[in-house]
């Protein structure tokens, strides 16, 4: 009798323990499952791994033409933004749309994990891969493009980390207007185009009218490039040296722009994200 009564209690104990797992454990469990599915998707994996390695070689002709460190540091900022757009933004947009169409997000939402945990877990693999590949890109780019040692290495790190995190809610917001994984190839284009303009890759900011350049400087990609340039060379967009407290004042302004975008994007996702498949 005692043994019979204790057996169900013993069975319930692990279930209680499982049911009271910490949010961090749930996040890691879901992120591990997302990583497994990402590794099985060869197209996404190739995009995430090979493209960041190839991008520095695209800028090799610029380096061979005798461009100075300022131009190459700008090019490095552009490369980082392009990698973040493909590895984080586009991959996550496709992933969230696919999970929503397969009703995976809806099923996960009925479980123990909160909405934020479900969405954040999907982003963890892409953010980890982006961090590793940007490190690889930097290791390739410095000797290949003959770049100097960064003057304030913390600024590019913080700017890139905040920029990568910002792309997560932007991918979720874009998923709202994306019906299928295939249509993600079209719906991603407006944000990518604006982001590329913000880097100055299409038209340098110095060649734009002042009012338009000030507007472009508010695009999320512009502060990322500015922080990479400021942290790497300690210069402003015009190439003039920035020293002392002016470095941190300029960096604080760029970080503030990124934080405002992040807050607005998270607010939009919290209110408007579509968990149901689009008809």
From TrEMBL:
The keyword Transmembrane helix applies. It comes from the Bacteria. The chain crosses the membrane at residues 45-63, 75-97, 118-142, 154-174, 186-207, 251-269. The keyword Isomerase does not apply. Residues 71-266 form the ABC-2 type transporter transmembrane domain. It holds the Pfam family ABC2_membrane_3. InterPro entries: ABC-2_transporter, ABC2_TM. Keywords: Membrane, Transmembrane, Transmembrane helix. Signal peptide: none annotated. Residues 1-20 are annotated as: Disordered. It is found in: Membrane. Residues 1-11 have a biased composition (Low complexity). It is a multi-pass membrane protein. This is ABC transporter permease. The lineage of its organism: Bacteria, Bacillati, Actinomycetota, Actinomycetes, Micrococcales.
